[in-house]
């Protein structure tokens, strides 16, 4: 087994998976205290139970924003979507095509980075963005 990876049941767990879980933790830790309070947990579960499209986009965006700078590069998007490939039959090439399609639709200012506002705006113009973007 490669260094920095582990195994959870039959699914391999990579460093990228752990980093994604850490970013998810950060999105739940609303007060940025380094731990999740009970109310943070309750709010997050409520969002997951019956999420609005905007809430799904926000959570997915937070997980995909690997460096926490408030934007997602094409590589960050490809890497995040590739993590989902473990559970789908999508190839790396089709993942790249999907990521490029999302960027073409959502990178409103053409700077090569997606912000949450760009994703939200693009999803209002084209609701299929939600199913393409959300993890």
Q: In terms of per-residue confidence, which ranges show pLDDT below 50 for 5 or more consecutive residues?
A: 1-5
Q: Care to count the β-strands?
A: 4
Order of helices and strands: EEHHHEHHEHH
Structural class: mainly alpha
| Arithmetic mean pLDDT | 78
Over all CA atoms, what is the radius of gyration? Answer: 15 Å
Task: Summarize this structure briefly.
By secondary structure, this protein is mostly helical. The chain has seven helices and four strands.
Written description of the protein model:
By secondary structure, the protein is mostly helical. The chain is built from seven helices and four strands; from the N terminus they run ββαααβααβαα. The protein has helices spanning 15-28, 38-49, 53-64, 74-84, 92-106, 116-125, 128-133, and strands spanning 6-8, 11-13, 71-73, 113-115. It has a two-stranded antiparallel sheet with strand order 1-2. A two-stranded antiparallel sheet has the order 3-4. Strand 1 and strand 2 form a beta hairpin. Helix 1 (15-28) crosses helix 3 and helix 4 crosses helix 5. The protein starts with 5 loop residues before the first strand and ends with a helix.
């Amino acid at each position: 087994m490669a260094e920095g990876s582990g195994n959870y049941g039959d699914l391999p767990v990579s460093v990228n998976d752990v980093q994604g879980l850490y970013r998810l933790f950060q999105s739940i830790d609303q007060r940025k205290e380094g731990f999740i309070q009970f109310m943070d947990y309750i709010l997050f579960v409520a969002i997951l139970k019956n999420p609005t499209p905007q809430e799904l986009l926000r959570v997915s965006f937070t997980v995909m924003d690997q460096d926490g700078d408030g934007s997602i590069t094409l590589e960050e998007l490809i890497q995040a979507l590739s993590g989902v490939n473990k559970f789908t039959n999508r190839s790396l090439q089709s993942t790249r095509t999907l990521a490029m399609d999302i960027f073409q639709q959502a990178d409103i200012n053409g700077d090569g980075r997606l912000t949450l506002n760009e994703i939200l705006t693009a999803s209002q113009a084209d609701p299929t963005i939600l199913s393409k973007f959300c993890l």
